[in-house]
User: Which sequence fits this backbone?
């Protein structure tokens, strides 16, 4: 029997998607761990960019939460620069991948990390806001969104659109002035993986974690997504991935131990 | 030719006409080679006023101006409008001290306490993003009224910000215009400064130079005060030239409980203590113990942190590559 957290699954699935010899804009928390795992196992020549102004650091293990900008995650960088420059690399087209979390997502991949509720002035729940998320979602060629799979998180229209998806209130990215041919590329959840329909730009289910069914996944969403003709079975984390995550990258379980435990025979 | 305005964010925003800023720089900022060394108390008293727009750099975890922030709280400054780009606990502590009225949000940390302040409407927030706030500071630093950029477009973040979208006359596509940001005062912690205000930092910079250039008043706190010749020996390393700076504070461990590259690591325990504050009572207890009941940064370090802890944090800062 294999036991892992859904966070571990999301991290592994995201790491498998990255390509070697590309650049990736890395955000706080889980994306840092994804980049570390990818660098260790799959993409040794990927260049990580951090918004605070580190380009191409060689990561030090173990991962310590809270080291955003400190010596641990700026170690042996190729360049230290400013935030304006870091985002400008992305705005000018140099950054291939971006990775973001979200509190809510809608049919077109718009994401909310700002607030829950109907009244902006009196939010039911306030989150940290965009951070660099809006820039990552606006500028990177391909954005990967990693989030927990819960019904309340998949909504027809986000309570607040913090960062842009493919279509906002009927307008396409290009109509809105966002850089051409950019946008969310994959959504990885704790149970499934989605891409976006080429024509309609709607969220489309393309993979389901082994042990779950398409129905279970769709039932756990606030709207019905498009479903690919062939939905693949997503492999759970491999022994090697789990070993590297648990022993080398995050032995204190700061990130990977969060979330629900999944048991597979 | 008329430029077409497509949409407009609804937020009020802090704005200074570039000509007014230039005149302030001409008349109120000195280019004298003057000894600007003073302590936290004097610097904050002289240069931070109630109602000011306050910016700071880098982050809560790394090279943040924490001794200066604590002094702002200690002096019970009021009605500040703060620029929360890439910061975590400062916004919560300043709100806890009753210093803050408005926050421009890039990233609004830290945790439940500040979230509740926003949910209850006690603190007013304006949503921008880290990138748009930083570009606004860049425009402020360049002395231009606004800067075009391709973020925020189409989102609710745009609607709640003070940005404009226009049809760009060069490409005929929509583009966002971000108003320049010229803070009233900036607090910046650095590794090394001289008594005149020349300063350098080691490590990434977030918006160290842009924030200093854009702000009317600049208070630098430094781990170490060095001779001016140190800057002349490695001019590439000078981030802030002296004529941007109004006050220099010698503040060893000035970023505590955060770390400073090449000097000491952050105090993870203390950081957890701050980030786990949820209620008003817990916040006031914290502020009483660590801010109000001590008179200065020195007393804070002596009585509330202690040599043993400081030694441990210095011990942990083993990575020096690039930081000296």
Assistant:
């Amino acid at each position: 029997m294999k036991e892992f957290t859904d966070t571990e699954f999301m991290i592994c699935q995201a790491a498998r998607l990255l390509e070697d010899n590309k650049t990736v804009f890395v955000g706080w928390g889980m994306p840092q761990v994804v980049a570390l795992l990818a660098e260790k196992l799959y993409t040794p020549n990927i260049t990580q960019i951090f918004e605070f102004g580190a380009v191409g650091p060689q990561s030090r293990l173990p991962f310590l939460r809270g080291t955003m900008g400190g010596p641990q995650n700026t170690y042996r960088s190729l360049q230290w620069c400013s935030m304006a420059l870091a985002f400008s690399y992305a705005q000018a087209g140099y950054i291939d991948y971006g990775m973001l979390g979200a509190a809510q997502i809608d049919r077109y991949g718009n994401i909310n990390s700002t607030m829950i509720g109907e009244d902006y002035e009196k939010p039911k729940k306030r989150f940290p806001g965009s951070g660099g998320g809006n820039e990552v979602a606006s500028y990177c060629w391909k954005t990967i969104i990693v989030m927990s799979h819960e019904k309340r998180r998949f909504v027809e229209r986000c309570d607040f659109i913090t960062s842009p998806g493919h279509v906002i209130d009927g307008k396409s990215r290009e109509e809105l002035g966002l850089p051409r041919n950019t946008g969310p590329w994959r959504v990885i959840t704790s149970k499934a993986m989605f891409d976006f329909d080429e024509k309609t730009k709607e969220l489309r289910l393309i993979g389901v974690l082994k042990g779950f069914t398409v129905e279970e996944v769709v039932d756990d969403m606030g709207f019905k997504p498009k479903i690919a003709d062939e939905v693949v079975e997503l492999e759970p984390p491999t022994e090697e991935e789990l070993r590297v995550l648990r022993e080398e990258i995050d032995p204190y379980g700061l990130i990977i131990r969060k979330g629900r435990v999944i048991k597979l025979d | 030719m008329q430029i077409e305005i497509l949409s407009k964010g609804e937020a009020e925003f802090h704005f200074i006409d570039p000509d007014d800023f230039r005149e302030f720089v001409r008349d109120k900022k000195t280019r004298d080679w003057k000894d600007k060394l003073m302590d936290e108390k004097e610097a904050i008293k002289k240069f931070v006023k109630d109602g000011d727009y306050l910016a700071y750099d880098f982050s809560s975890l790394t090279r943040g101006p924490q001794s200066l922030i604590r002094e702002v709280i200690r002096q019970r400054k009021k009605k500040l409008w703060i620029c929360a780009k890439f910061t975590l606990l400062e916004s919560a502590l300043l709100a806890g001290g009753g210093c803050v009225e408005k926050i421009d949000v890039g990233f609004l940390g830290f945790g439940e306490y500040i979230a509740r302040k926003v949910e209850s409407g006690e603190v007013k927030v304006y949503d921008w993003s880290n990138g748009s706030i930083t570009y606004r500071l860049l425009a402020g630093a360049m002395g231009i009224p606004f800067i075009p950029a391709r973020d925020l477009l189409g989102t609710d973040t745009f609607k709640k910000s003070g940005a404009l979208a226009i049809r760009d006359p060069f490409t005929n596509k929509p583009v966002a215009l971000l108003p320049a940001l010229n803070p009233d005062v900036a607090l910046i912690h650095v590794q090394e400064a001289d008594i005149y205000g020349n300063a350098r930092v080691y490590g990434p910079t977030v918006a160290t130079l842009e924030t200093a250039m854009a702000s009317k008043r600049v208070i630098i706190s430094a781990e170490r005060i060095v001779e001016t010749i140190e800057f002349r020996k490695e001019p590439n390393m000078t981030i802030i030239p002296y004529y941007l700076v109004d006050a220099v504070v010698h503040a060893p461990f000035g970023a505590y409980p955060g770390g400073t590259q090449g000097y000491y690591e952050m105090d993870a325990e203390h950081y957890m203590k701050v980030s786990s504050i949820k209620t008003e009572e817990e916040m006031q207890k914290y502020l009483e113990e660590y801010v109000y009941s001590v008179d200065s940064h020195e007393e804070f370090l002596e009585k509330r942190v202690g040599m043993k802890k400081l030694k441990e944090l210095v011990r942990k800062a083993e990575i020096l590559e690039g930081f000296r």
